[in-house]
Amino acid sequence: MNQQGPPDFPPRTPEMPQLPKLPELPFSPKLLLFIPVVLVLLLAVWRSFYTVQAEEVAVVLRFGAYHSTQEPGLRFKIPFVDEKLIVPVRRQMKQEFGFSTPGATNRHQYSRGNEQESEKQMVTGDLNAALVEWVVQYRISEPSEYLFNVKNPDETLRNASESVMRETVGDRTVDEVITIGRQEIEAEALLKLQELTNKYAMGLRIDQVQLKNVNPPVPVQASFNEVNQAEQEREKSINQANGKYNRAVPQARGEAERKISDAQGYAIQRVNEAEGDAARFNALYTEYMKAPAITKRRIYLETMTKVIPEIGKKVILDEEAKQILPLLNLDTPSK
C-alpha cells in the first residue's frame, strides 16, 4: 500500500509558478555561548563608568570594604567588584522638630504623626511647660564616617538634637526660653550638638540651630499673652520715663551751669568795679592831698553838673530875698 503525502492546498496547477527556496543559513551551537559573553561584556562596560554631580562625592567600596572617595566628574570603577555610594556633601540639609514643611525630599527632615507633638513639649528649669519648635541645619563633612561609623546617622542626629535641646531648655526659666534667652539657647545647643556628633564620629558639621515658634502650652497661652503685654507696657512706661529724665536732667544741668556762669561773671564784674572805684578814690585822694580847696571845688562842680540836669526846672531863692514875685518869669509858659 503506497502512502501519499498530503495534497497541496491550494492544489497546484501547471499554470502556477514555482516559489524560490530560501537559502539555508549555517548554524553552530557555539553561537549560543558567544551571545551571553557579549552581553556580559557590554554590561560590564556600561557599569564601569559613572558620573558624580557637582554637589556630591562617590564613596567606592571594593569587595565591600572602603577603597576611596571620588570627586565630581566622570569616574571609572571595576565592574562587579567596586560599588559606589553617592553622598551629597555640598548640600545643606535640615531637620525640623515640632513641625513639618510639606514637600521635603529628606525622609529624616521631620518626624511623623504624634511624634511632633511630643518633640516640642518641654519642661523649663523653673518647672514650667513650653512648646519649642526648632530647626537644625547640617552638612556631611566626612562621607566615610557618615556611611560606616554610625548606623542610620540622620536618625541618630534627630535623637541627639532632641536630647541637647531638652537639656538646654531645662537649664533656663520659661521667660528666658520664650523671650530674652533665645540666642543664648541657640548658641549653646549648637556647641553641644557639634561636640556630640564629633564624639560619635558621625561625619557631620552642624551649621545652625534656630528656634522657631516658642510658646507656652495652649491652655495658658491667653494668660501668658496678657502677662507679656503687661510687661511690655511696663517696659514702655519705663522707657518713656527714662526719656523724659534724659531730657529734663541735661536741661536742668545746663540751666544750673548757665546761672553759675552768670553769677561768676557778675562776681568778677563787681570785683572789678570795686577795684576800679577804689583805684579812682585813691587817685582822687592823692590829688586832694596836693590841693584840698581846689579839689573840693572841682568835685562840687562836677557833681552839680550831673545833678542839676536831672532835677528839671527849679527856682533857687536867696535866703535874704524879701519877695519872690520879681523873680518869677510870667511870660514863660509853665511845663
Automatic annotation (TrEMBL):
Q: Where is the Band domain?
A: 47-228
What is any one of the record's Gene Ontology cellular component terms? membrane
A Pfam family annotated for this UniProt entry: Band_7
* Top-level taxon of the source organism: Bacteria
Regions crossing the membrane: 31-50
Q: Per its record, what are the GO molecular function terms?
A: peptidase activity
Main location (coarse class): membrane
Q: Which UniProt keywords apply?
A: Hydrolase, Membrane, Protease, Transmembrane, Transmembrane helix
* SMART domains associated with the record: PHB
Q: How does it assemble?
A: HflC and HflK may interact to form a multimeric complex.
**PANTHER family this protein is in?**
MODULATOR OF FTSH PROTEASE HFLK, STOMATIN-LIKE PROTEIN 2, MITOCHONDRIAL
Q: Family, per the entry?
A: Belongs to the band 7/mec-2 family. HflK subfamily.
What name does UniProt use for this protein? Answer: Protein HflK
Q: Which organism is it from?
A: Haloferula rosea
The gene for this chain is hflK
